[in-house]
Amino acid sequence: MHRQREVYDGERLQPLEKRLLNDFQHDLPLVSRPFAAMAERLGVSEQDVIDTLAALRERGFISRVGAVFRANTIGASTLAAMALPEDELEKVAELVNGYREVNHNYQREHRFNLWFVVTAEDEAALRRVLDDIETRSGHAVLHLPMLADYHIDLGFELQWT
Amino acid sequence: MKVTRKAPRWPVPAVLDGDDEALITAIQGGLPLVPEPYAELGRRIGLSEDEVIARLRRLQETGVIKRLGVVVRHHELGYRANAMTVWDIPDDQVDTLGACMGRFEFVTLCYRRPRRLPDWPYNLFTMIHGRDRDEVQANIALLVRECGLEHIAHEVLFSRRRFKQRGALYHAPEPAHGGT
Description:
The complex is a heterodimer of chains A (about 160) and B (about 180).
Chain A lengths: L14 H9 L10 H9 L3 H13 L3 E8 L6 E7 L3 H12 L4 E7 L5 E7 L2 H15 L4 E3 L3 E2 L12
Helix pairs in contact in A: 2-3
Chain B lengths: L17 H10 L9 H9 L3 H13 L3 E8 L8 E8 L5 H8 L5 E6 L11 E7 L2 H15 L5 E13 L15
Antiparallel strand pairs in B: 2-4, 2-5, 3-4
Helix pairs in contact in B: 1-2, 2-3
């Protein structure tokens, strides 16, 4: 998926877009017509809400209107890290990206410079992916599964200044 | 700086039946942007609208779904800096200090994970976002002050490149990766 991403420019976001981005990150109404309920709060039409959300998704500002799942309540997932020589980083990052089980993959500034999240249907499948990456890359993978979640997810307040 | 006041919701072991799993699969790419999205989801998996709504409510109550709403992309919205900040906290303090840190709005993840000695001494992981590195550093300084972390060793791992970011796929339909 190589959709052209728009560069953020706060000036170009309309007031309705800003409110949709900021005010509805949690507690989406569980009613038959949730976008109509949002529209009522915003003083616009249901179609305005739907069209604006679709446009924000198309422009890459939102990934979806939907659910954020708590890690490890369904399937198995882990955070994995690798300490790679600079000249191998790109190649291994590409190899890691090739797994559909990998959903985040970042270079970070540390001796452990490649960090990715692996999600699979169960622990055995997860292990297979990690072992496979170790074998194919020739480098060890640190396996750091979540033990406790202390975060209260209420979304993230955006500041427009 | 807004700090939430609610107590953390601990994960509750959830019992999911086949319809829950079908619903989770159906919703993971997002709700369809149509006037009656829950009815539309239900049509795809053979459940009534009421059933979809009731199941989503229960998945939220049991903590399987952390939140239901607009999922923004921080980077695209100008939050260009993110730092995974990792802490080496004595085991008997990790629950208390983790709960303290998890309440701050700029902390978007706060997990306990195992140490992997000698390579990796850190057992608490926080993801901290900001519009730039200075803002991230200021947020970390605030955490240290507010939660009393002055004597806790930590490291700040700024991201340099994002190779991939998307929602997790829990029940992807296609066969496992074939590149082995």
